[in-house]
Amino acid sequence: MDFSQPELLLPFSFYNRPVLHVAKDLLGKILLRKQNGKILSGKIVETEAYHETNDPSCHAHRGKTRRNAVMFGPPGHLYVYFTYGMHYCMNVVAEAEGIAAAVLIRALEPLSGIELMKSRRDEKFKEKDLCNGPAKLCQAFAITTKENGISLLENKIWIADSELVSSKQIAVSPRIGISSGQELPWRFYLKDNHFVSGKKNGK
DNA sequence: ACTGCGATGTCCT
DNA sequence: GGACATCGCAGTT
Protein backbone atom coordinates (compact mmCIF):
# COMPACT_ATOMS: atom_id res chain seq x y z
CA MET A 1 0.00 0.00 0.00
CA ASP A 2 1.39 3.38 -1.02
CA PHE A 3 0.28 5.84 1.61
CA SER A 4 2.05 8.75 -0.08
CA GLN A 5 -0.69 9.24 -2.68
CA PRO A 6 -1.99 12.81 -2.44
CA GLU A 7 -5.63 11.62 -2.29
CA LEU A 8 -4.97 10.09 1.12
CA LEU A 9 -3.70 13.31 2.76
CA LEU A 10 -5.99 14.15 5.67
CA PRO A 11 -7.83 17.45 5.03
CA PHE A 12 -8.31 20.54 7.18
CA SER A 13 -11.71 19.25 8.34
CA PHE A 14 -10.08 16.25 10.03
CA TYR A 15 -8.12 18.52 12.38
CA ASN A 16 -10.84 21.13 12.85
CA ARG A 17 -12.73 19.06 15.44
CA PRO A 18 -12.73 18.41 19.21
CA VAL A 19 -9.24 17.36 20.24
CA LEU A 20 -10.36 14.08 21.86
CA HIS A 21 -11.91 12.97 18.58
CA VAL A 22 -8.79 13.91 16.66
CA ALA A 23 -6.55 12.06 19.16
CA LYS A 24 -8.61 8.89 18.89
CA ASP A 25 -9.05 9.07 15.12
CA LEU A 26 -5.32 9.55 14.53
CA LEU A 27 -4.72 5.98 15.68
CA GLY A 28 -3.98 3.81 12.65
CA LYS A 29 -3.25 6.82 10.42
CA ILE A 30 0.13 7.20 8.69
CA LEU A 31 2.68 9.93 9.42
CA LEU A 32 4.88 10.68 6.41
CA ARG A 33 7.90 12.84 5.65
CA LYS A 34 9.67 13.24 2.34
CA GLN A 35 13.42 13.60 2.84
CA ASN A 36 16.53 12.94 0.76
CA GLY A 37 14.32 11.49 -1.98
CA LYS A 38 13.04 8.90 0.46
CA ILE A 39 9.75 8.55 2.25
CA LEU A 40 9.81 8.08 5.97
CA SER A 41 6.52 6.68 7.25
CA GLY A 42 4.97 5.06 10.27
CA LYS A 43 1.56 4.09 11.60
CA ILE A 44 0.38 6.12 14.59
CA VAL A 45 -0.25 3.72 17.49
CA GLU A 46 -0.30 6.03 20.53
CA THR A 47 -1.54 9.60 21.13
CA GLU A 48 -2.40 12.01 23.94
CA ALA A 49 -4.78 15.00 23.92
CA TYR A 50 -4.06 18.39 25.51
CA HIS A 51 -6.47 21.32 25.86
CA GLU A 52 -6.04 24.79 27.31
CA THR A 53 -9.27 24.46 29.34
CA ASN A 54 -9.40 22.42 32.58
CA ASP A 55 -6.03 20.90 31.83
CA PRO A 56 -3.16 22.31 33.94
CA SER A 57 -0.58 20.12 32.18
CA CYS A 58 -1.33 21.68 28.82
CA HIS A 59 1.40 24.14 27.84
CA ALA A 60 -1.33 26.60 26.85
CA HIS A 61 -3.28 26.41 30.10
CA ARG A 62 -1.90 29.73 31.32
CA GLY A 63 -2.37 31.54 28.05
CA LYS A 64 -0.38 32.27 24.95
CA THR A 65 3.43 32.50 25.04
CA ARG A 66 6.12 32.49 22.40
CA ARG A 67 6.63 28.76 22.80
CA ASN A 68 3.00 27.61 22.62
CA ALA A 69 1.69 30.18 20.11
CA VAL A 70 1.24 27.59 17.37
CA MET A 71 -1.35 25.78 19.47
CA PHE A 72 -3.56 28.86 19.29
CA GLY A 73 -3.31 29.00 15.51
CA PRO A 74 -5.29 27.13 12.88
CA PRO A 75 -5.64 23.33 13.08
CA GLY A 76 -3.60 21.01 10.89
CA HIS A 77 -0.25 22.49 11.88
CA LEU A 78 2.72 21.02 13.74
CA TYR A 79 3.58 22.14 17.29
CA VAL A 80 7.10 21.04 18.23
CA TYR A 81 8.67 21.82 21.60
CA PHE A 82 12.03 21.15 23.20
CA THR A 83 12.21 19.61 26.67
CA TYR A 84 14.58 18.13 29.27
CA GLY A 85 17.45 19.93 27.61
CA MET A 86 17.75 17.42 24.79
CA HIS A 87 14.45 16.09 23.46
CA TYR A 88 11.82 17.22 20.97
CA CYS A 89 8.15 16.25 20.97
CA MET A 90 5.66 16.76 18.14
CA ASN A 91 1.99 17.60 18.36
CA VAL A 92 -0.79 18.05 15.84
CA VAL A 93 -2.83 21.21 16.37
CA ALA A 94 -6.60 20.63 16.58
CA GLU A 95 -9.80 22.66 17.08
CA ALA A 96 -10.63 26.06 15.65
CA GLU A 97 -8.14 28.91 15.45
CA GLY A 98 -8.06 30.76 18.78
CA ILE A 99 -8.61 27.60 20.85
CA ALA A 100 -5.36 25.99 22.00
CA ALA A 101 -5.53 22.20 21.69
CA ALA A 102 -3.16 19.60 20.31
CA VAL A 103 -2.47 15.88 20.08
CA LEU A 104 0.94 14.57 21.14
CA ILE A 105 2.13 11.75 18.88
CA ARG A 106 3.71 9.27 21.31
CA ALA A 107 4.55 6.23 19.21
CA LEU A 108 4.72 4.94 15.64
CA GLU A 109 5.07 1.58 13.98
CA PRO A 110 7.79 2.20 11.36
CA LEU A 111 6.71 1.33 7.80
CA SER A 112 9.30 2.79 5.42
CA GLY A 113 12.62 4.63 5.60
CA ILE A 114 13.68 2.35 8.41
CA GLU A 115 17.38 2.46 7.51
CA LEU A 116 17.32 6.26 7.66
CA MET A 117 15.57 6.11 11.04
CA LYS A 118 18.21 3.73 12.36
CA SER A 119 21.02 5.97 11.21
CA ARG A 120 19.47 8.86 13.14
CA ARG A 121 18.76 6.88 16.30
CA ASP A 122 21.37 4.16 16.68
CA GLU A 123 22.10 1.14 14.51
CA LYS A 124 21.86 -1.07 17.57
CA PHE A 125 18.13 -0.46 18.01
CA LYS A 126 15.54 -2.98 16.90
CA GLU A 127 12.70 -1.74 14.73
CA LYS A 128 10.27 -1.55 17.60
CA ASP A 129 12.59 0.76 19.55
CA LEU A 130 12.95 3.35 16.80
CA CYS A 131 9.69 5.27 17.38
CA ASN A 132 8.15 3.95 20.62
CA GLY A 133 8.25 7.26 22.48
CA PRO A 134 7.55 10.92 21.64
CA ALA A 135 11.19 12.04 21.61
CA LYS A 136 12.33 8.88 19.82
CA LEU A 137 10.05 9.34 16.85
CA CYS A 138 11.11 12.98 16.52
CA GLN A 139 14.73 11.85 16.40
CA ALA A 140 13.93 9.14 13.84
CA PHE A 141 12.04 11.63 11.63
CA ALA A 142 14.55 14.46 12.32
CA ILE A 143 11.80 16.74 13.61
CA THR A 144 13.05 19.74 15.63
CA THR A 145 11.81 23.22 16.43
CA LYS A 146 12.76 24.10 12.84
CA GLU A 147 9.59 22.24 11.90
CA ASN A 148 7.49 24.06 14.51
CA GLY A 149 4.46 25.69 12.91
CA ILE A 150 4.58 24.00 9.51
CA SER A 151 1.35 22.94 7.83
CA LEU A 152 0.34 19.28 7.60
CA LEU A 153 -1.79 20.06 4.56
CA GLU A 154 1.20 20.22 2.21
CA ASN A 155 3.33 17.23 1.37
CA LYS A 156 6.49 17.93 3.42
CA ILE A 157 5.27 16.35 6.64
CA TRP A 158 1.73 15.09 6.54
CA ILE A 159 -0.68 12.40 7.70
CA ALA A 160 -2.45 9.95 5.41
CA ASP A 161 -5.74 8.16 5.83
CA SER A 162 -5.65 4.39 6.19
CA GLU A 163 -7.91 1.55 7.15
CA LEU A 164 -10.59 2.26 9.74
CA VAL A 165 -9.71 1.30 13.30
CA SER A 166 -12.57 -0.20 15.29
CA SER A 167 -13.17 1.27 18.74
CA LYS A 168 -12.63 -2.24 20.12
CA GLN A 169 -8.96 -1.98 19.21
CA ILE A 170 -8.49 1.27 21.14
CA ALA A 171 -7.40 1.42 24.78
CA VAL A 172 -7.61 4.49 27.04
CA SER A 173 -5.41 5.45 30.00
CA PRO A 174 -4.10 8.43 31.96
CA ARG A 175 -1.40 10.38 30.18
CA ILE A 176 2.26 9.67 30.85
CA GLY A 177 4.73 11.85 32.72
CA ILE A 178 2.10 14.25 34.06
CA SER A 179 2.41 15.58 37.60
CA SER A 180 0.16 18.62 37.90
CA GLY A 181 -3.44 18.38 39.01
CA GLN A 182 -5.53 15.26 38.73
CA GLU A 183 -4.72 13.37 35.61
CA LEU A 184 -7.25 12.76 32.83
CA PRO A 185 -7.83 9.61 30.73
CA TRP A 186 -6.66 11.28 27.57
CA ARG A 187 -4.11 8.79 26.30
CA PHE A 188 -5.17 6.48 23.47
CA TYR A 189 -3.32 3.54 21.99
CA LEU A 190 -3.84 0.44 19.90
CA LYS A 191 -4.37 -2.61 22.09
CA ASP A 192 -1.79 -5.34 21.70
CA ASN A 193 0.37 -3.28 19.38
CA HIS A 194 4.06 -3.97 19.95
CA PHE A 195 5.20 -0.48 19.01
CA VAL A 196 3.44 1.40 21.83
CA SER A 197 5.84 3.22 24.21
CA GLY A 198 7.13 1.79 27.47
CA LYS A 199 7.42 -1.82 26.36
CA LYS A 200 10.80 -3.38 26.85
CA ASN A 201 10.31 -6.71 25.17
CA GLY A 202 7.93 -6.19 22.31
CA LYS A 203 4.90 -7.44 24.21
C1' DA B 1 12.42 -7.93 36.38
C1' DC B 2 12.51 -3.13 38.55
C1' DT B 3 14.68 1.34 40.43
C1' DG B 4 17.30 5.54 40.42
C1' DC B 5 19.46 9.16 38.18
C1' DG B 6 22.22 12.25 34.99
C1' DA B 7 22.05 14.92 30.92
C1' DT B 8 21.00 19.67 29.70
C1' DG B 9 18.10 24.09 27.34
C1' DT B 10 14.14 26.78 27.63
C1' DC B 11 10.29 28.64 29.76
C1' DC B 12 7.99 30.62 33.60
C1' DT B 13 7.45 32.42 38.51
C1' DG C 1 15.81 28.93 40.64
C1' DG C 2 12.74 25.14 39.72
C1' DA C 3 10.11 22.42 36.69
C1' DC C 4 9.81 19.93 32.62
C1' DA C 5 4.11 16.00 27.88
C1' DT C 6 12.02 12.05 28.15
C1' DC C 7 15.51 8.68 27.41
C1' DG C 8 19.07 5.37 28.19
C1' DC C 9 22.37 3.52 31.25
C1' DA C 10 23.93 1.52 35.59
C1' DG C 11 22.95 -0.88 39.63
C1' DT C 12 20.22 -4.05 42.20
C1' DT C 13 16.86 -8.21 43.13
> What is the total tally of β strands?
8
Order of helices and strands: HHEEHEEEHHEEE
In the residues, how many domains can be counted? Answer: 1
Which term fits the overall shape?
globular
CATH homologous superfamily assignment: Methylpurine-DNA glycosylase (MPG)
Computed structural class? alpha+beta
CATH architecture: Roll
Distance between the termini: 26 Å
Proportion of residues in helical segments:
10-25%
Q: Tally the helices: what do you get?
A: 5
CATH first level: Alpha Beta
The biggest sheet amounts to: 8 strands, antiparallel
Q: What portion of the residues fall into strands of 2 or more residues? A: 25-35%
Describe this structure in words.
This protein is of the alpha+beta class and 203 residues long. The protein has a single domain, classed as Roll (3-methyladenine DNA Glycosylase, Chain A), CATH 3.10.300.10. It has 5 helices and 8 strands, in the order H-H-E-E-H-E-E-E-H-H-E-E-E. It has helices spanning 12-15, 19-25, 69-72, 114-120, 134-140, and strands at residues 30-35, 38-51, 78-83, 87-93, 101-112, 157-160, 170-173, 187-190. Strands 1, 2, 3, 4, 5, 6, 7 and 8 form an 8-stranded antiparallel sheet that branches. The longest helix is centred in the first third of the chain and has 7 residues, at 19-25. The structure holds a DNA duplex (13 and 13 nucleotides).
